[in-house]
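[09:14] KT: can someone run the structure on this one? pasting the chain below
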Amino acid sequence: MSADGFTRMSIYGINLDLFSSSPIVILKVEDENRYLPIWIGQPEARSILMKIQNQSFSRPLTHDLAVNLVSELGGTMERVTVTELRDSTFFAKIHLQIDGRSVEVDSRPSDALALAVRSGAQIFAADTVIEEAAVEFEEAIEEAPEEEVVDKFKDWMNKVSPDDFK
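[09:31] RB: done, C-alpha cells below
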C-alpha cells in the first residue's frame, strides 16, 4: 500500500472478454506483478488503442478534443485516479490544474484513461480498489514469452466475470 492511499499504475494492454466480447483495459501496478482489469466500452477501447499505437487523424476525435479544450483554457491534466469499485462498477476522477487551482472531475475510468494517454497524465488507483480487484501472477509477466503471457490472461479471463469483482 502507498502512503496516500493511491498507487501508480500504467496501461499494460487491452484484451477481449471471451464471454461478453467486451474489451478489458488492464492496468499494471508499477514495479509489481499485480494487474487491475477494468471492463470498458468498444469506443473507449478503440480510443485508447489508437493513441497507444500512435495513430493520428486529420481531425481531433472526442478524447483529443477534450484534451485540447483543457489546454486551450489554460489547464493541464495532472493525473487520473480509479477511485472505487461499487456494485461491479469502477469509478474515476480526472485531476486538473486550472489557473493555479486543483479541480477534480468525475469520470468513467475508460474516458479518464483515454484522456491520460493523450495528455501524459499519470494514472493511479486507490489501494482499496487494487486490494479488492487486482489479479496477481506468481512470476513477472515481462519475463515470460509473449505467447505464455497471452495464454495466462486467456486462462484467467475464462474463469473470471464482472460479478467476481463485487
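[09:33] KT: thanks! The radius of gyration is 16 Å.
[09:34] RB: yep, looked fine to me
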